[in-house]
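Hi Q.,

Before the meeting this afternoon, I wanted you to have the (R)-mevalonate prediction in hand. No need to reply - just skim if you have a minute. The sequence and ligand are here:
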Amino acid sequence: MAEPLPRDFRRTTAAGRRRMLNDFRPGVDPNAFGRDEEMIELADVMVESAVGYLALPVGVAAGFLINGTRVDVPLATEEPSVIAAATYAGRIVASGGGFETTAGETVTTGQIYVEHAAPGADQRIVAAEPKLRLTVAPLLAAMEGRGGGWRGLRSERLPGSGVLRVDVDLDTRDAMGANLVNSVVEGLRPEVEVLSGGRVVMAILSNAASRRVSRAAFAIPVTLLSRAGLSGAEVARRIILANEIAIEDPQRAVTHNKGIMNGMTALALSTGNDTRALEAAVHSYASRGGTPSGGTSSDAGYRALTRYRSEERADGSSLLHGALEVPVPLGTVGGAIGIHPTARASLELLGNPDASALAGIAVCVGLAANFAALAALVTEGIQRGHMGLHAQRVAWAAGARGEERRLVAAAMSACGEYGIDAAKRALGEVRSTKPAQG
Ligand code: MEV
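Predicted structure with the ligand bound:
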């Protein structure tokens, strides 16, 4: 068993931890956790016990047209095809008129849970709203200066446990808001406890982000969709059917919605946002039950988040309509965003959007990722697009670099073999036919 790392591992600097790794874990190369000294120091500022940073690819899905404006979208992801798919969809939708999007409010709800609350506690707390608001006024002063701040308070009993829940709505403008909301509900804790006559169990924001629901939609001529020897109308029909399947079948809906998140999470990551908060909000929205607008299913449960339909026009042409509606808790200031150079550069590339505009872009990218996935799935399948990059990855793993990598991947694609042995064989052949150096 490996020797424990020294007790002061946690308390030393990132550079110190790297030295300890070097001494105590000789099989682990500290340089594999990045070499850039400023980034290593930044990692130390951002998280505890940092030893370095993870370099993930960032690509740009260029040429989205959103509410009439061209937007190049930075996407950080480890998955091949995500950026190609978003680019493909962004281009087709742009040539058909672009995306239209509307953003939800920038309001986040904090929750205080109280056990053993006395009878009438909910009314007492609601009546005390002005006083409670005053208590946290210093915490909200800067946000109010930016047009945000207190937006209201509610209180209700949970029917099962009888626990009292106090909801506080705060407009956090361009910040995602988790820090501010958590500070405010924690600041209210003592007073809520006194008013309720009970005991506060916990105080924390809700990641449901129910008031941050944003929408994106497009309508494009089906003629733009023809591929793999199929007419555009047939591809559109198949996309609509694939979406209906994902509305009906929760097993498929999970994969369908994962495809949406391929785009949305990659944008959240490139802009330094909290990807888990985004995913929690989106997946909870997919399970919210009831009849989704334009949906075909009325049962509660997890379902696809996109909607597609066709429209026949008087001139005989037809359009494919696509739409997505999801909560988008993203920010453009605060947290890692202000201090991480990649996040700052990504926002710059996006034209420095505010949080509402970024939410709108995120929904468009989610819809684009889904549209591209469905278009591939119902025609040639997704593997063909994957295999080119996959071959390059395997060639890399076999030791091929630079031009060799491309030659090995091409040889693998030519014989349809994508395993590591095929890559090593191809690499051997490439090297044996390479002219001698010098
Ligand atoms: C792969 O990352 C995403 C897809 O599986 C999404 C989908 O099936 O709709 C292709």
